[in-house]
Amino acid sequence: MTKSSTLNHPVYPIGTPGIAWESLEKAAWLAIQQRKRNYWDEVVSPLTALLLDRDSPLADWAELVEYAELDYQPQGLAQYPLFAVRSRNWQAHRPTVLVTGGVHGYETSGVQGALQFIAHKLSHYQSSVNFIILPCISPWAYETINRWNPLAIDPNRAFVEHSPAAESAAAMAFIRQQTQKVALHIDLHETTDTDNSEFGPAKAARDGLVFEYHDIPDGFYLVGDSEKPQPEFQRALISAVSQVTHIAAADDAGCLIGEPLQQLGVINYAKKALGLCGGLTDAMYVTTTEVYPDSTNATAEQCNRAQVATICAAIEYVLQHGD
Question: Which domain range does residue 278 map to?
């Protein structure tokens, strides 16, 4: 089943149809954004409690690192420290696991799922893998429930050389400093109804294009890398997540979000070519999760648990099959 909008080509309230935004329109867009939740309370505070408290069992073998700071004061906004969780006792013979969340700040379970994995599951793997976890790459977007950063740039199309998005550039620089070899990268995302009601129309207006609606898949799915699809790996993750929540079915054309279905719950993108977060390493095993938090058949907690289940199943697969 898929969920389709009945609206047709709305005119976004900023800009002139058919004309790409300039600085004036981007400033107008920024002016209407509002803070709706607190990065410090919902992300930083749980991380510090887990990793900086003397009594925390995680603190002996995991450390909290401030890897960069985003400075949006020139836009009249705040500074945001960026945090990663990494292994203290790095071992070269162990596979390295990278987990990224909150590249799109509005995709809540990407952030909260990463935090839940750190809190409840990370200890299971602390002696078998090296880990790097960036739970919230885009904190301003997390607070304002946004896809873009304050400059109207999508960080998940900006994992490229000389990136225009500070969020993407900081994450890339940090990972390159940590290691040259990553075995597994899980990038945590959501597909939401607001992709059709807000973020898609905004992107079309920004770029001077006409927005075309697409069906929103009802359920969980994965986006593999077309350059290294690893179908058995993707299948193992879908099997694990199916125990937590339902898997999205293809639409009548055999697609999810316009892409041909490769197998149940799996499509592929060219991650590096598109500047996606999933393309920031040369990991053999790569996938992007997509949960559907607006489904009537899933709760927010199920979405979080689906993210955690994916990470765990992915690590188990790599430990079994090697890197």
Answer: 11-54+63-321
